[in-house]
Each structure stands twice: as structure tokens, then as C-alpha cells.
Amino acid sequence: FPDRRGMATGMAIMGFGGGAMIGAPLADRLMNDFKTPTSVGVWETFLTMGAIYFVFMMIGAFRYRIPP
């Protein structure tokens, strides 16, 4: 967005709030799904969320095009 730097900044800041709004309930749900009597499921949740974020990042990276 070379012509709209303010819009790019706003979208980046929106991503922080949107990520927390989606990530927190997802993490809670995953920890409830992965918990056992001896573990609360934190490392499984981190691994799962990392894989999900990686997939979304790769989709975004491969769809990115440099304008002519």
C-alpha cells in the first residue's frame, strides 16, 4: 500500500485485536480438548496453533504478488 500507508497501518493494528479475539477462544477450546489428568494440554495447544498459523502464513505468502 504505497499510496495508503495509514490504511496498511490500520489493517496491521486490526490484526493484533482480531488475532486475540480469535486465538484466545481457540486456545481455550484446544486446551480443554487436550487436557488429561496429568496435563493441561498447553504444549499440544501451542503445537496445534503453530501449525494453523503456519498454514495461514504460507497461504498469504504464496498469494502475495509484487506489482509491476
Automatic annotation (TrEMBL):
Stored SUPFAM superfamilies: MFS general substrate transporter
UniProt keywords, alphabetically: Membrane, Transmembrane, Transmembrane helix
Example of a GO MF term: transmembrane transporter activity
The keyword Transport belongs to this UniProt entry's keyword annotation: no
The keyword Transmembrane is assigned to this record: yes
Record field: transmembrane: 7-26, 46-64
The Major facilitator superfamily (MFS) profile domain, residue ranges: 1-68
Protein name from the UniProt record: OFA family MFS transporter
